[in-house]
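lol ok so funny story. i was supposed to be doing the assay writeup but got distracted and ended up predicting the structure for this chain instead. priorities right. anyway since i did it might as well share w the group, maybe its usefull for someone
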Amino acid sequence: MGKWGEIVPEGVCRTFPANAQVLWDIHMFPGGVGATANGQMIEDNVVEIGIWFHDDDTNLKYKQDLALYQLREGYQNGELIVPPHGYTMTQGFHSFDHPVRIDSFQPHGHLRMNAASLEVFYPETGRTEQISQISNWSATWHHSHIYAQDVAPLLPTGAVLVIKQWYDNTSNNPNNPDPDMWVVGGSRTGDEMSHAWIAVTHLDEEGYDQLLAQRKESEEKMVAAHD
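and the output, tada:
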């Protein structure tokens, strides 16, 4: 609900395999969407998809994909549990065997989820860098947070994405329909989910170094302009 479209940056593309099909999955529950939306049914829902195709002669070197990154393995089998009048935090990790650029971040949950963050851990130095924090999250607005192309996080080979989400099953959560419930993983709105959709451009070392050099040059020009 409330999601805007995805935007693929210049110079990259997503691909369809031959004879591919486009499928989608919409899960809803007839109990409303929580107090912040007045607990009412949402009528006349519309889901649309638009696909822009590149010309055959377009030279695009790198591919981007939008994938679901799970935070809690097996959560749909009951491993994700938020106790009555309690809290839970989930955490997931993912690394790549090649450099990448993170183009967008869309955490997913239901009525008890209330915050999410995305961090990068660099094993060589032990440093952790937070690149996104979404507070006061609401299931009525599943927004894809798209990074500007000149500042989209660049991850070297081996860097680790750390994805965290928080859940509030207390009466302090204005979206909570029933804080007395045990909440488990599942597709119903009254259940919970724990994953994030992340758009990733898959680079090689040459492309990674080129993007770093372009950003360094841009920063130097900005500094020189202010001197």
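The chain has one domain: 12-226. The longest helix spans residues 205-226.
back to the writeup now i swear
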